[in-house]
Amino acid sequence: MPVIEVDQLARSYRSGSRFSRGARTEVEAVRGISFEVEPGELFGLLGPNGAGKTTTIKMLITLLLPTGGSARVLGYDVVADPREVRRRIGYVFGGDKGLYERLSGYDNLRYFAELYGVPPREQRQRIAELLDLVGLTGKEGQRVEGYSRGMRQRLHIARGLLHKPDVLFLDEPSIGIDPVGARELRETVAALVSTGTTVLLTTHYMFEDDELCDRIAVIAGGAILAEGTPEQLKSRVADGHVVEIEVFDGVDDRIDAVRAIAGVTSVGVESSDRSQLLVVRTAAAAQVTPAVLAALEGRSLGRVATREPTLEDAYVELVRDA
Amino acid sequence: MTAALRIFFFGGITSYRALFHWLTPWILIPTFIVEPIFQVLFFAFVGRDAGVGDDSFYLIGNAVQFAAIPCLFAMGNTIGNERYTQTLGLLLASPARRLPLFLGRALPVIINGFCVSLVVLVLGALVLRVHIPAEAWVPIVGVLVVTSFSCTGLGLATAALALRVRETAVLSNIIIGILIVFCGVNVPLSALPAWMSTISYVLPLTHGIEAARDLAGGASWSAVTGLVATEALIGVVYAALGMAMLFALEVESRRHASLELA
């Protein structure tokens, strides 16, 4: 039986104040999505900001009622049996907040251990295990206000695991963490999954999903655009390739010309301090490099490279078409 | 101890430590000792100069009233600040039973209100040389406990609004003003317009202040039990109203997404 069953789940909000002159509008944050997560699976919800990822998680952890469809976690309906769902799940979100700054890391964990009904005689050992797992042993006596962002995020993870949840919801857990911290976090998540914990992870970092997830659903505009393993998603663009050209003196005025070249499926630009990187995705068997270079004639060019598509390319294709 | 009792006691104290941001000597001492003493002195000297009331009247009125400051603001902080720390969503996503979870937060607040009231009463009596009979102190302490409880009940009702609105301190300030004017703190109820004194009877403080004044004036405990019981009943009603609001607003937050999570 799937651990998470989502069937035509929908949620709309009313925006605007009832006291303001402007008309109140209905915003559909999640538009009838469906997916299932199997036991022990690490399932990724991948999408841009505002895609509906957090709204979906809020409904699954019982903080928000759906306006349509249904969802069950471990067989319990998130609307009808919220307390049964809450007992069995953990929830961790990214960012600086969500901890009691004036309390020590240990007291934060102890308080949530009480809220989740961890028996008093088990609390000390459980907290010690988790502090060890997230690398905060020896720091637990410090007030959280003195913790770095990475330490806070690791404490969040420990908090979410106190009651040994069957399912862990991770809502953009690596947001704002430095690369080393993010790598450690991914290792922690991978270790959790290896112990049998089912994880639903939302992120907009492709490499995170690519490295960690068994399956991914790409979500944008409140709808699921594609679902599958990272390899399956990559295969959607695998028969094409990607040309990257470094341009030093501006490329914005040539994008339309590049886009018009036969065989080009999409064009993106990544800007840095010194240059812009033109990313041209092509259809299968298309040899577009000479035509692209011709379109950039007169510009100061740097590195020109051709590579295989990544999950990010598949994601960009999907989200661009949404 | 059961899980619910542990959440009530341990959880209540932890929330108070975590979220009541006045718990630093730089705020605590001026707010809970210095300012109340100045307020007592101000009204006592105004009363002396105007030839109305005696020092005891103003001392007891203001000392008891000062229980309301921590009871309203600390209660508001321990629930409202969950929004600022963005722990409110985590709290509501937990399976913890709501009654001990929120009611437990009231316990340290009651103790805080009682301590402030007692300290102001003792220091004020020493500074103003107000004589309170030795046998009256124990029953007055009882009145202060009950009054702190009733003020905390009102605090719980206002704090519940934190599940719907971001700012509860503004409301607490307004309520403090209402309590000072309506509850006979510095003006006898008999001197208030009839409609104001009528309202005062459903507010915390009114009966507690009257009971404490009667005790300081030589009345026996049995003579004030009616007042004390009424004060306690008012506290129970407001606390029940607060819990009902917390339950209702939690349901509403799930329906209308009124919580800020992250």
Mean pLDDT of chain B: 92
Assembly type = heterodimer
Radius of gyration of chain A: 23 Å
Order of helices and strands of chain B: HHHHHHHHHHHH
What's the total helix number of chain B? 12
| Second-tier CATH architecture of the largest domain in chain A | 3-Layer(aba) Sandwich
How confident overall, as mean pLDDT of chain A?
Answer: 88
Helix content range of the residues of chain B, please? over 70%
Helix content of chain A: 25-40%
- Distance between the first and last residues' Cα of chain A: 31 Å
Structural class computed from helices and strand pairing of chain B:
mainly alpha
SSE topology:
The complex is a heterodimer of chains A (322) and B (262).
Chain A: E1 4-15, E2 25-37, E3 42-46, H1 53-60, E4 68-73, E5 76-77, H2 82-88, E6 89-93, H3 105-115, H4 120-133, H5 149-161, E7 167-171, H6 179-194, E8 198-203, H7 206-212, E9 215-220, E10 223-228, H8 230-235, E11 241-247, H9 255-259, E12 264-271, E13 276-282, H10 289-295, E14 301-307, H11 311-321
Helix pairs in contact in A: 3-4, 4-5
Chain B: H1 3-19, H2 25-50, H3 55-65, H4 68-84, H5 88-92, H6 98-103, H7 106-128, H8 134-160, H9 169-182, H10 194-200, H11 206-216, H12 221-256
Helix pairs in contact in B: 1-4, 1-7, 2-3, 2-7, 3-7, 3-11, 4-7, 4-8, 4-9, 7-8, 8-11, 8-12, 11-12
